[in-house]
Amino acid sequence: MTEYGRGPGSEPWHPEDPLYGDDGWGGQQAHVGQQSPYGGQPQHYPQQSQQEQYGDWGQHPQGGYDQQQYAYYDEQGQLQYADGHGQHAHGHGQPQYDQQYVGHAPQQYHQGTWDATGTHGHVPYAADPGDPYGQQPVAYGAEQPDFYGTEDAYPPPEPPGRRRPEPEPQPEPAVEEEEEQHPFFTGADDDDDDGDDDPKGRRGGGRGKDAKGGKGAKKRRSGCACLVVCLVFGGGAATVGYFGWHFYQNRFGAAPDYAGGGTAETVTVQIPKGAGGYDIGRRLKEAGVVKSVDAFVHAQTQNPKGNTIQAGAYTLKKEMSAASCVLLMLDPKSQANVVVTPGERAAAVYVALDKKLGLSAGSSKKIARAEYKNLGLPSYANSNSKIMDPLEGFLYPGTYPAAKGMKPDAILKQMVAAAKEQYAGYDLEAEAKKYDLDSPLQVITVASLVQAEGKTHDDFRKMAEVIYNRLKPTNTETNQKLQFDSTFNYLKGTSNIHISESEINSNRDPYNTYTQKGLPPGPIGNPGEDALKAALNPTDDGWIYFVATDGQNNTEFAKTYAEFQQLKEKFNANSGN
């Protein structure tokens, strides 16, 4: 017994398949009249067209039916069977088949079997005349003759009276030319869902195209929508263009800048210490000197000396080009500053302030003496009542703005604040005890002596050792006297190198270290950082004497009095004494 269409590889049946049912093809298996040429193995044939499944209309060319039947539906829609002689089989008449297989005759029973009564469960429908694949060759068994559409086909083609006429090709409707075919502009998107239910495309009970809400309204809405879109896109394009232009200018374009050397109006701009090019440019722009920060930064970088602009006050013109502004700031004439040099005395600072501020001589010195307690001096600054100037040693070296219109006490206060900040970085209390000094003020005094007597940086540490060795109680060489010309010159307000012994020995002032032991009452100048560090880190070589053998910059040191005499003779020889 062979089962067709159920072998391996056959597609699974679906319960809702119209060719599959409880009383259809799923019943008895078909009995073959002869043994299968495949040895009784289950066979699988690909699905073929209905004509190839049933063979010819009359007699199958390679096998045959003992009784020929075909199926059709009558006028009442009932399934009827008729044999080859025109007799109808009703009910459960069982057709008998004398099935013979020759070669590879493509016989297939719709992947099912007949039931026990011989009633066919489902009868296939005739092929659709409009099926474009109806006359294509099958994939399997294509070597057999194709009887589709001939008198030998099974089932036979319908009589001409029962055939469905093929639909006549309809001419394509003429498309009205419109300027815009996009649904957005034609108003197609404005149709409601209700319009799809009207087979004639009408809405509102058959109202015409010009009725309210019809085609005219759609065109009006489409026009408004177009206007809105144009405005939105136009505004967006303008915005993008505006920001794009600014981005290009900021990224690639030249920075805004004035032309020329500026107007006749002048302004003073103060540049703080440590300010960079951008900070300087910002202050200049705020003062109306340059037009943009970027223009100044560019001009500064283009000038080889642009990075040498220092802190201080500058008298500049308004609306200057960035390049001319840089040139003027590099000119000392534009710098409205007071520069305190290391070792400079307070008296010299007062004179410079009077000149920069346009004040009468002595004005700054008078204000300093009257206001020194209000300038922020540290508490140890006034520890000795014999101090000649309380601000001495506390006007820290540096550059300070001093333009006309500014007050001397305000500038002096900045100098004192700078000194106080720098000294705070050292533990002067501990350093004073380390070198047997009475107070931090004496540490600053030692630094001022190192600055005044030392000629070079290399001299500073040796000079500090000389001071500490002479201050020692065990000093029998000078008996704790410093014997510095610098202290006597400070007392006199001079800078003489050649001082007579009679003049020195006759003066008993506390600042005369030839006649007075120990340190002077206070600093004799404003020491710089190098001198202060040397005072806190002297050498330890035993130096106790020194002589400027060339009379100016060449200072030589000695450990004994005999070595000192040799240096003194050298000095006399060089100076013509």
Q: Descriptors for this entry?
A:
single chain, 577 residues, mainly alpha, three-stranded antiparallel β-sheet, two-stranded antiparallel ribbon, 16 helices, 7% strand, elongated, disordered N terminus
Task: Tell me about this structure.
The strands form four sheets. This protein has a three-stranded antiparallel sheet, with no helix packed on it. The chain has a two-stranded antiparallel ribbon with strand order 4-5. The chain has helices at 50-54, 183-186, 215-251, 277-286, 293-302, 322-330, 346-357, 363-371, 408-423, 428-434, 440-453, 457-471, 485-492, 501-506, 529-535, 561-575, and strands spanning 69-73, 79-83, 88-89, 266-271, 312-317, 337-340, 398-401, 545-548, 555-558. It is elongated and about 155 Å long. Helices cover 32% and strands 7% of the residues. Residues 1-68, 84-125, 133-143 and 190-213 have low confidence and may be disordered. By secondary structure, it is mainly alpha-helical.
What is the approximate shape?
A: elongated
Structural class: mainly alpha
In DSSP terms, counting alpha (H) and pi (I) runs of 4 or more, how many helices?
A: 16
Task: Write the H/E string, N to C.
Answer: HEEEHHEHHEHEHHEHHHHHHHEEH
Give a short synopsis of this structure.
The chain is mainly alpha-helical and 577 residues long.
Spell out the blueprint of helices and strands.
Layout: H1 50-54, E1 69-73, E2 79-83, E3 88-89, H2 183-186, H3 215-251, E4 266-271, H4 277-286, H5 293-302, E5 312-317, H6 322-330, E6 337-340, H7 346-357, H8 363-371, E7 398-401, H9 408-423, H10 428-434, H11 440-453, H12 457-471, H13 485-492, H14 501-506, H15 529-535, E8 545-548, E9 555-558, H16 561-575
Antiparallel strand pairs: 1-2, 2-3, 4-5, 6-7, 8-9
Helix pairs in contact: 4-5, 5-6, 7-8, 10-11, 11-12, 11-15, 12-15
